[in-house]
Amino acid sequence: MRYGMWILALVFIVGIGCGSSQTVTPPTADEIQGAIAAANPDGIVAGQAMNAATLPPCLDSDGNALVGGIYSYGLVEDGTDTIPEWLTFGAQTRVFAMADGYDAVPASAVGETTMGYTCQWEATDRRVTTFTLSVTE
């Protein structure tokens, strides 16, 4: 009986590993900016609080949102591996918000910042959508 259970377990694990062929489709820049704008209808304004926004999910080849342990999300300022210090991003929740310790958008943030929103399926398929974060006075 044990022998049969081990074979069944091995077939299940191999089947999962070998059958995993997904194509990742990230949201467009307009969709990302739309999510931020929906949470901040007056825009992002220096000296005012910024409301948290849940960024749209990336989709797998079946059109399902990428969630769970084999997917990952990231957000960085273009040309760096971080985001501005006054912002935070939850890779598991996709929530983009003001960082702890900030109650208002700093004046130094005024202008446009190019950001990259990343979604990845395992280690094989990584996609980045570039969008512009605009802060006004």
Write structural notes for this entry.
It is built from two helices and seven strands. With 137 residues, it is of the alpha+beta class.
Largest sheet: 4 strands, mixed
> How many DSSP-defined strands?
7
Give the spatial strand order of the biggest sheet. Answer: 1-7-6-3
* Envelope shape: elongated
Q: Helix and strand succession? A: HHEEEEEEE
Q: Kindly, what is the distance between the CA atoms of the first and last residues, rounded to a whole number of angstroms? A: 71 Å
Radius of gyration: 19 Å
What is the residue-mean pLDDT, rounded to a whole number?
Answer: 83
Helix percentage: 10-25%
β-strand percent reads 25-35%
* Count of DSSP H/I helices: 2
Low-confidence stretches: 1-19
Give the helix/strand class. Answer: alpha+beta
Quick structural summary:
The chain is an alpha+beta fold and 137 residues long.
How is the topology of this model organized?
Elements: H1 2-18, H2 29-39, E1 44-45, E2 53-54, E3 71-77, E4 87-89, E5 95-98, E6 111-121, E7 125-136
Parallel strand pairs: 1-7
Antiparallel strand pairs: 2-5, 3-6, 4-5, 6-7
Task: Give keywords.
2 helices, three-stranded antiparallel β-sheet, disordered N terminus, alpha+beta, 137 residues
